[in-house]
Design goal:
Shape: elongated
Number of helices: 16
Number of strands: 21
Strand content: 15-25%
Length: about 575
Amino acid sequence: MTEINTDQTFPAEPGAVPTAADAELIAAAVRAAGRGLLGRESVAEVVVLCAVAGEHLLVVGAPGTAKSEAVRRMAGQLGGRYFEYLLGRFTEPNELFGPVDLRGLREGRVEYETEGMLPEAEIAFLDEVFLGSTAVLNTLLGLLNERVFRRGRTVLASPLRICVGAANHLPQDPALAAFADRFLARVFVEPVADSRLEELLEAGRRPAVPAPRDGGPGLLAAVDRLAAAARACDLDEATPLVATALRRLRAAGVPISDRRAVRSQKLVAAAAVLDGRTVASARDLWVLPLVAPTADAQALARDVLADLVEKSANGSLVHAAEELSRSTAARAERLAHAGAALLAEHRDLPEGAGLTAAAGGRPAGDRRGLRPGCPARRAGRDTRRAGRGGLALVTPEQSSVPAPRTAPASPPPPAGPPGPSSRQAFALRWERREPPLPSVAVLALGAAVPGLALAARERIRAGARLAVLADDGPGLPAAERSLLVLGAEADLPWADGVRYLAQDEGLLTPTTARPAPAAALWRRALGAAEGQLCVLVPGRALIADPPVPLGSAEVLDPYTVSTGTGPDGGADGTP
């Protein structure tokens, strides 16, 4: 067989000029692929990023975590010739690359029929990719690295834009290291968090999205135009920043080979053009953790590069940019897209309608006789109060998050509260936060209150400066007691059954979880005034005026008992 051109780039159509319109087309395809794909939006987005960069992607995660589904959906949106195969230890090369051409064999030539097989695919997905035999992996090595298929007398330039490999875990065999290194970007998938199981179950009841069919070019022309723009992208401004980032990663012990260092620039360039720009900048550095080879290394990379990626964001790949950078800019970008999607989804709501959580529980803002500072009213003790009505219980399930809308040209006349027909159910969700935020407070509820009070009392006696807020309203059941201790992370006490809280956009939330919609929206919905503390945890929300550090540990004594509600006495008559 005659060797053909092996140029692995795919030039754009003659006369075509890559524009932001292509990035918008791809962004729409990404949103369509991720719809209903709970927690896997980032996988679909990184598939597109790698396709534009001309690099391959490895997705690692336990079985049943929707790795394959995310890739199939994105491939279906992009179109083109798609090839998928599940590799095993006994997979024969002809199952991937095609059978021997029998007519040529009769004439003494060993050639292969590649039509419909991996060498002619434009998008490929290989599940359990590391289980392939040596013969399979050696042939794949050249195909992935050079985009050229060589076997026998067959030498074929492959139109492959991206190959996505999937595995349950990274290989331990050093012999597979060279093959694994061909996958520049890596995404590690975790099971959906327990707090989102209801959403997962609901999504699982929806009709399945059809698998991609081998058909027309779809959006591959737009991908090719963006890829051409990425190859011409101006990296002068970003190069010193990328070099600084790579030095930091190597100094922190993250193994970055020279090949991965050089090719990481392709991801930066692809991020820029997918954001509608032809000049890369600090906004595009969020892609760099993808080149770290393990999940632990990627977590370390996010920490080490935190200040470099604080301005990173991407208008097309909003979930991946936020997950990899943890930047406020990326989160704002995602929230803006989420708000636009909500407006589009609820465009038929009456003017002024909002989104609210499911009904039930006490009315929002119901105050339960709560006060700051835990002041005791016994002789010889500090009886000064920092102000009554401090820590107010509200029920997050009753709070509403207003839907963003365009303000009318003239203010509408005052109106009463909207009726039930003017509000749309919108559940408070909790998402896993990685890495955890630093603790600034610790919260005890119900039976955990006495333990935290004892621990806080000992910390104050040891010299820690702690401020305390307590719920000690008359008649409050012991199960509904609350004790909030604030201070420096090193000063906070430890006790069984407590929750450690962090600052998140003016809201105190668990260090390992974040609310959705955004914390800032929930703070406003809960009715916290300027300067007030606002706490939101699963099942409970608290509002209070800021306390001052306690001067005496003894004021915590009434809260160390296992029954009652505080120094005012409780529902069970305990003093």
